[in-house]
């Protein structure tokens, strides 16, 4: 019995409606030329720790979509809605004025190894913070930001 495959089943729209992991999200949008991508790690983080407390942070990655077409922002918003990564715990998920924000953390051996912040809506952004961060340090930061 021959299998029949429907071409529309493999369209861009259907692919973006599938569940998205954090790594896939960052990988997909790192390829767009209009996405502003800043990555700080290694030597620069070591240098920064000489001047300020980095609280175990070893790298920061930020994607800004301000210069992107609306179609790219819409694809990001769909991917954010479909974000589902079992290696992360959802810390915050909120929607205000159509702007969806999620904060996810990856915890290993009582340390936060990764914090991911995704913001959708009209001014979307992706932020990834890596390191070996004590939960108390993150809580102190959260309290400071209130």
Summarize the structure in short.
With 146 residues, the protein is of the alpha+beta class. The chain has five helices and six strands, in the order ααβαβαββββα.
Outline the structure in words:
By secondary structure, the chain is of the alpha+beta class. It has one domain (11-145). It contains five helices and six strands. It has a six-stranded antiparallel sheet, with helices on both faces. The termini are far apart. 16% of the residues are buried. Mean pLDDT is 78; it is low at 1-16.
Major β-sheet profile: 6 strands, antiparallel
Task: Identify low-pLDDT runs.
Answer: 1-16
Mean pLDDT across all residues, rounded? 78
Query: Could you say which structural class the secondary elements and strand pairing correspond to?
Result: alpha+beta
Count up the domains: 1
| DSSP E strands, number | 6
What distance separates the N and C termini?
A: 62 Å
User: What is the H/E order?
Assistant: HHEHEHEEEEH
Keywords, please?
globular, 6 strands, 5 helices, six-stranded antiparallel beta sheet, alpha+beta, 146 residues
Blueprint (SSEs and pairs):
Layout: H1 12-16, H2 22-30, E1 36-41, H3 42-49, E2 57-64, H4 70-81, E3 89-96, E4 99-108, E5 111-119, E6 125-133, H5 135-145
Antiparallel strand pairs: 1-2, 2-6, 3-4, 4-5, 5-6
């Amino acid at each position: 019995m021959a299998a029949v495959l429907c071409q529309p089943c493999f369209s861009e729209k259907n692919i973006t409606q599938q569940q998205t992991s954090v790594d896939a999200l960052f990988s997909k949008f790192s390829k767009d030329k209009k996405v502003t991508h800043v990555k700080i790690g290694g030597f620069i983080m070591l240098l920064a720790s000489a001047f300020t407390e980095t609280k175990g942070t070893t790298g920061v990655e930020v994607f800004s979509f301000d210069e992107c077409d609306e179609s790219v922002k819409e694809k990001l918003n769909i991917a954010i809605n479909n974000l589902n990564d079992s290696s992360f715990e959802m810390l915050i998920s909120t929607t205000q004025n159509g702007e969806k924000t999620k904060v996810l953390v990856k915890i290993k051996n009582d340390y936060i190894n990764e914090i991911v912040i995704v913001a959708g809506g009209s001014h979307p952004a992706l932020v990834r913070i890596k390191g070996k961060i004590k939960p108390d340090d993150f809580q102190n930061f959260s309290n400071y930001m209130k």
